[in-house]
Structure formats: structure tokens, C-alpha cells
Amino acid sequence: MGRYLRDESIKNVTVDEDILKDISDEFLSRASKINETIPESERATSPKAQLVSYIIRFDRKGYRFYSIEELLKFYKSAGQVERVVICMESQESRHTNREFGCHSELRFDSNDPNNCWLSVSSEEKDWVESTYSAYRDIISAIKNKNGLLRTSWTPLVVQVGGVIVGFLLSLVVAEKVSPLLSVDSPFVVSFLFVLLIYSNLWMYLNQLVLKGIDFSFPNVRFQRKNSYVLHWTVQAVVGGIIAAFILYIIGLGMEQVASILKSLLVERI
């Protein structure tokens, strides 16, 4: 890396074609300013010469381009965009594995929040600061509200909420079935039994709920103008499927409780 470095994680943003074009224009503008200081006859071989490249991964395939038009062409036609990377680096940076020279990169990844970042490095401190600030201004303009649900507290809230629901559900079921039992402390027995079944189911349901939140409120949302309505329709359908699956699992648990209780009643008779 260069002597000076500024970087940060990118969180809770919505990316579309216009934003990608704006980011590309900023990268190209800064690359041109540096390249203009190099004699034209030396630009092809100069270690200071800057090159802007683009990477897009979609539908389990990845491509590298050297023009924003090619990137946007694939971006608009992709089934599911997974990752977009825009990078500007000098020949020196490329040849030294980014140990020296100018380098800046903006990476968006819809599948891995830890793979989303902005990074700027160079030997020139002023250039790093100004470049970093310019890119950061663009990112701040595309922030969304997903961060309200994507917090470190979300798993805890979901876990505690699930425990409360399980407790209340166990109370309701125990109250319904305890009169039918001929055992000592029927309410306590039925309550503990239902709570035990639910607690085992909740280990799996908890992960489904968290995945549903992560899908509906992603860290990076790639948005296409021609599929904006479709995106929300798909989200609604998938959300409905997840909800139906959760209810189905709960229903299976209730059926198991009822069948076991019936068997206990038969044995007592």
C-alpha cells in the first residue's frame, strides 16, 4: 500500500445505474487529472499512469471491463447482481501489488457485508484526503434506512421475541389441554412439554427469521430501473413463503403435541 491510507466499510446503501455512472465519472476525472501531468508519449509506460477498471459479478459469473458503458450493459441485463467493483490504480500500484503508487477502490457486494468497502492509498496525503472525501460524499448520498434493522441488537431482539412468543404459546396450549390429562400437575407437564418442543423448533426458525430480515433489508441493494417494481414483488412473495413456512413448522409442532397428548389419554383410559 501507499504511505497514506483511508478506508471504511460501506453499510446500508442502494446502488443503481445513475450512481454507478456518477462514481465512474469521479474515478475517471481523478485519473485524467493525474494522466494529464504525464507527457503523452510516456503515458503507456509511466508508472504513474492511472487506469480505471470495472468488475461485475452476476448469476455466478464475473467480468472485468475498462469502460462504464460495458459494465452498465451487463448490469441492466443481469438476473441477480452480486458484486460491483470500481478501481483506479497506477501502473506502479499494479506491479507492486498495491505496495506503492496511487490506488482507490469502491466495492459493493450484496452477498457479503464484510466485502463492501472504500479504500484510497497513495504517497501523497492531500490527494488521499481529497479523493477519499469525494468518494465518501457520493456514498453518503445513497444511504438507505436498512440500518435500522441491520444492527448488532437485531439477533438479540429476534431471539428474545421468539422466546416470549414460545412462552405465551406454551401457556395457551397448556391451558387448553391440561383439563384432558390425568397426571399430577397436568398444567405444568403440558406447559413444559410444549415449551420443550418449541425451544427445539426455534433453533431453526430463528435462523430463518434472520435470513428473511437479511434478504428483505440487505446491506447493499442493487436496483435496476426496469425491475424496481419486480424487486418489491419478489420480496413480498419470498417474505410470504418464509412466513408460510414458519407457520407450517409451528403447525407441525402443534400436531405433534396433540398426537402425544392423545396417546397419553388413551394409555390412561
Please describe what this structure looks like:
The mean pLDDT is 82. The strands form two sheets. A six-stranded antiparallel sheet has the order 1-7-6-5-3-4. Strands 2-8 form a two-stranded parallel sheet. 54% of the residues lie in helices and 18% in strands. By secondary structure, the protein is α+β, with helices and mostly antiparallel strands. The protein has helices at 17-35, 68-77, 91-95, 125-140, 154-177, 186-216, 228-268; strands at 4-9, 13-15, 50-58, 61-65, 81-90, 103-109, 117-122, 220-222. α1 (17-35) packs antiparallel against α2, α1 (17-35) runs antiparallel to α4 (125-140) and α5 packs antiparallel against α6 (186-216). It is elongated and about 95 Å long.
How many E-type strands?
A: 8
SSE topology string:
EEHEEHEHEEHHHEH
Runs in which pLDDT lies below 50 for 5 or more consecutive residues are none
Total of DSSP H or I helical runs spanning 4+ residues: 7
Helix coverage percent: 40-55%
Computed structural class:
alpha+beta
Quaternary structure classification: single chain
Read across the widest sheet, the strand sequence of neighbours is: 1-7-6-5-3-4
Overall 3D form: elongated
Characteristic key phrases:
269 residues, two-stranded parallel sheet, alpha+beta, 54% helix, six-stranded antiparallel β-sheet
Task: Offer a quick outline of the entry.
With 269 residues, this protein is α+β, with helices and mostly antiparallel strands. It is built from 7 helices and 8 strands.
